């Protein structure tokens, strides 16, 4: 009986350190564990605690939407202190998709247009998504793309006139002018004929 009791006591002691270690996980480790459940972390080292928290809330927000997938977090090559998320973004009809980059930002963080352009060139993308985090962990996504001054004809709305080359416009204007002149000459000849007919009568 004594041996059995000692065995139970030993078994209880062997299980205690494992549960204690789980309870002693730091907040950073807990955030990283949650982050890795919703995104792949493409780096040998973990992001700093502040970056990890921003990445987790942003990745969780993207994972809740059907149009986002293949979410991964990685540091910028220019600085290991700034991490971003790369993910696949589908169009509304799911007919097309593109790889986009999302930069998490706290409300107290700001970014200049010069910095935006630097990031765009570094990441080799046309535009960037910004994830603005609130104090309660909610995330609002903003997309910043360069203005498309001239879109393709089949992509323009009905109120946007199609682009016509200047040469074609000049030719059309010339034809319209000539047709207008011919119409005036025809009206003048008809008017003269009427006057002659009235004189005869």
Automatic annotation (TrEMBL):
Annotated spans, Disordered: 1-34, 178-201
Superkingdom classification of source: Eukaryota
Bias (Basic and acidic residues) ranges: 178-188
Annotated protein name in UniProt: tRNA-splicing endonuclease subunit Sen15 domain-containing protein
Organism for this UniProt entry: Symbiodinium natans
